[in-house]
Specification:
Blueprint: E1 13-17, H1 22-32, E2 36-41, E3 53-54, E4 57-58, H2 67-72, E5 77-80, H3 86-97, E6 101-104, H4 110-114, H5 118-124, E7 129-132, H6 143-149, H7 170-193, E8 198-200, H8 203-210, H9 212-220, H10 226-233, E9 247-249, E10 255-258, H11 263-273, H12 288-293, H13 295-306, H14 311-321, E11 326-328, H15 339-344, E12 347-352, E13 356-361, H16 385-391, H17 396-404
Helix pairs in contact: 1-7, 7-8
């Protein structure tokens, strides 16, 4: 699971005091890059360890594990502590003393009450980078609430459709990505300017940035007539302004997504490729303005054309007859068999102590000289407590005393 070359963040120490998905994913991405990530959990564990069903599907795995926690916590060592006891808090303070990054995503005020707030920890380590999120001051937030507030649930269908959340907690996932990016920027700032700092990302900001293009365009064109704004931003398939940047159902029931935004560039070759050469110069369709004016008619005609062949047949035709931009509309279950996914290793196979082999979504960035790696799967609760305490200078007698006092497992 490891590479002989060092990861980009090898030598960086991360304290991960996070729960659920947002914060954990940020720490996982840093771990993928070689950082030593030490996850701090309560004695009863991260609540994600109890997610045995999600999205209406059984997510349980053998020996009390579940796919939710496994997906969010690779490349980490786990220490289980009772942080309400002074001895437990002291362990974290010792970890922070020589750490580079501390990540937490608890409700505002929790860290401060426990003695783990930014102002406290920066006194122990002035160069510490402290990553947190605080949506709406002291209000709690989870992914679907952010999808709702950010407008994302209204962006998943045509105007007038019922709001619908995107599966997979994409707001959480995007939040983790953005937080890790912010932490990397803070690391660069520390290298350049010599100071640590606090990095804040919220569910709302992440879900908005995921839709950054739509939000900015909507703001810039809000003076336009309502119908024009609606059509340009969230148009139903049957009225797409660009019929060759649209999706169509094939004979075998699969859908093909065309993404030929430069309509006039592609249309003269596209029409003959699909067996309709006469459409290339048809006055109704010969340029962008004409195709837009007659888009409802043209989309109906294209619907009939595409239902005449399977996706595989259209794939061969479009590959042979022009440099068109298109893709199959796939279900996530199909990705592990996608030749492009396989060729690039976007889904990694890693040894697992319980499952034998586990397939995990791999780190999304490739580095030529300092590659990422998946070195370990999600840890068991408290799996590395003794190992980490010994590294901090605790003796076996100290560890036994902490166990007797209920500070550690």
């Amino acid at each position: 699971m490891s590479d002989s070359k060092p990861g980009p963040l090898q030598g960086i120490k991360v304290i991960d005091w996070t729960i659920w998905q947002f914060g954990p994913i940020a720490a996982t991405m840093l771990g993928d890059l070689g950082a030593d990530v030490i996850k701090i959990e309560a004695l009863n564990g991260d609540p994600g360890r109890a997610v045995f069903a999600a999205g209406g599907v059984d997510r349980s795995l053998p020996e009390g594990r579940n796919s939710y926690f496994e997906s969010n916590h690779r490349n980490k060592r786990c220490v289980a502590l009772d942080l309400k006891q002074p001895d437990g808090l002291e362990v974290v303070h010792k970890l922070v003393a020589d750490a580079d990054i501390f990540i937490q995503n608890f409700r505002k005020g929790v860290a401060e009450r426990l003695g783990l707030g930014y102002e406290t920890l920066r006194k122990l380590n002035p160069k510490l980078i402290y990553g947190s999120k605080g949506p709406d001051a002291d209000k709690p937030a989870l992914d679907t609430a952010a999808q709702a507030r950010s407008g994302l649930m209204k962006a998943t269908g045509p105007d007038g459709a019922d709001p619908y959340p995107i599966h997979g907690a994409v707001g959480d996932q995007m939040g983790g990505i953005i937080l890790s990016w912010g932490i990397l920027a803070a690391l660069a700032a520390r290298y350049n300017h010599g100071m640590g700092q606090r990095v804040d990302v919220s569910h709302l900001s992440a879900s908005m940035w995921l839709q950054g293009l739509s939000i900015s365009m909507s703001s810039l064109t809000k003076h336009k007539p309502k119908s024009e704004v609606n059509m340009s931003v969230n148009q139903a398939r049957q009225r797409s302004f660009n019929p060759i940047s649209n999706y169509y159902k094939c004979k075998d029931g699969r859908w093909i997504m065309l993404a030929n935004f430069e309509s006039d560039r592609y249309w003269p070759r596209f029409a003959p490729a699909i067996g309709k050469p006469e459409w290339a110069d048809d006055p109704r369709f010969r340029d962008t303005h004409a195709r837009t004016e007659n888009r409802v008619m043209l989309i109906k005609m294209l619907d009939k054309v595409f239902t005449g062949r399977t996706y595989a047949e259209w794939d061969e035709i479009l590959k042979k007859d022009g440099d068109f931009i298109y893709a199959p509309v796939q279900h996530i279950s199909e990705l592990e068999n996608d030749p492009q996914v396989i060729a690039n290793g976007y889904i990694a196979e890693v040894p697992h102590p319980v499952l034998g082999t586990a397939k995990l979504t791999d780190h999304p960035v490739r580095y030529s000289e300092t590659p990422h790696s998946i070195r370990s799967v999600a840890p068991e609760l408290g799996q590395h407590t003794e190992e980490v305490l010994l590294e901090l200078g605790y003796t076996w007698d100290n560890i036994g005393r902490l166990q007797e006092a209920g500070v550690i497992l």
